[in-house]
């Protein structure tokens, strides 16, 4: 897998992982982002994809998007900062499953480009579908 893009936001391996699992980045989502291993469950893939948004790694997002639904390209908005992930529910997606869903809410802030304008914040609520293909989990789409 290609390394994180030049636009990626650096994060130390010893920093708290953006997915808020409670682990440090170097022991949580970083090995997935570096291509050292693959997420064993749909939830772990979802968390690692959220972290990829948080650190600005579109290459990882594309790599983990199922080929049947993957877009031609993906650009991340550098003004958006993702800061919190809440997992609300899940179905399937375990180590012996071939499909699963993860319902989540992800919170963000948008930095204003206008001088003296305030930042805005919001959240994205989604129920993501995942499929295991060739022994690897992939994001399919939002249901």
UniProtKB/TrEMBL annotation:
Leader sequence segment: none
Domain YchJ-like middle NTF2-like residues, every copy: 41-142
Name of one Pfam family that matches: YchJ_M-like
Source organism superkingdom: Bacteria
InterPro entries hit by this protein: NTF2-like_dom_sf, YchJ-like, YchJ-like_M
Family: Belongs to the UPF0225 family.
Full protein name: UPF0225 protein N1027_06830
